[in-house]
Amino acid sequence: MSKESEEHRRGPQYKQAKRQGYRARSAFKLFDIQKKFNIFKRAYYILDIGSTPGSWLQVAKKFAMENLNKYNDKYYHRNHFKIMGVDIKKVSPIEGIQIVQADATTPEFQNKIKEFFQDKLDLILSDASIAKSGNKFSDNIRQTNLCFDILTLAKFLKYKGIFVIKTFQGQDFEKFFKVMKNRFLYVHSYKPKASKKGTNEMYIIAEKKKKITSWTQEFPQN
Ligand SMILES: C[S@@+](CC[C@H](N)C(=O)[O-])C[C@H]1O[C@@H](n2cnc3c(N)ncnc32)[C@H](O)[C@@H]1O
Could you read off the pLDDT of 153-185 as tens digits, one per residue? Predict the structure, then answer.
């Protein structure tokens, strides 16, 4: 496929993203989430899960950098930011960002989070998706299982921290949503305007992590 026809297939949002220097149109989903929930307010230590090609990392860096001056007051403030992105696939380097090529659901990766953030994470973002098989029923189950695995990483989030995660609507969505409500004070489901029409993706925005001692996995009962 020629470059022109590939860009045409990907649509106007893709072209807009490229014009603005973002690696993917997904950047606009994160901007929509930020506009509605202000998730980046005072966020300096950020983990992004499922980062390839890296547009959410680019957006996270933009807001973290702005925060350095914006919130320079007596309240919670840092004079530097730390951002880590993880993906099974390769992410091309972004200056000032730690990139890890790994499966985010492994114990080895948990050690990396601990070392890098020292339990001071302000915000976890997850746009991680399973590779879809086309069977909606089993894809939903696999995505929910991935979300439950990723949710265990919230143990590294600071008290009152924010967690954003992509889920698929359908099988087990309510079950996952309920578990999120047990762990965070405010939990919302939101479909960004930039999400493609007809997709069943749904983001959960969970604010103010509660004080919980046990972060063991809670798989849905299939
Ligand atoms: C929709 S893409 C993310 C796009 C990205 N947010 C951006 O804006 O550029 C989903 C990514 O999740 C990754 N992924 C899926 N399961 C994962 C896992 N267990 N650990 C790390 N990455 C994973 C996939 O490799 C894929 O690159």
Answer: 999 999 999 999 999 998 789 999 999 999 999
For residue 140, what pLDDT band results from cuts at 50, 70 and 90? very high
Distance CA 27, CA 14 (A): 10
Compute the mean pLDDT over every residue in the chain, rounded to the nearest whole number: 91
Give pLDDT, residue 129.
97
- Report which of 107, 106, 112 is spatially closest to residue 84, judged by C-alpha positions: 112
User: Ligand 1: residues whose CB is within 6 Å?
Assistant: 23-24, 26, 49-56, 86-89, 103-105, 127-129, 146
Distance CA 178, CA 158 (A): 21
- Which SS3 state, helix, strand or coil, does residue 157 take? strand
Annotated catalytic residues are 166
Question: Could you give the domains of the chain?
Answer: 27-209 (3.40.50.150)
Q: Maximum Cα–Cα distance for the chain, whole Å? A: 55
CA distance 57 to 54: 5
Q: Cα angle at 165 between 67 and 112, to 5 degrees?
A: 70
Cα(74) to ligand 1 centroid in Å equals 37
pLDDT at 74: 85
Mean pLDDT for the stretch of residues 31-52: 98
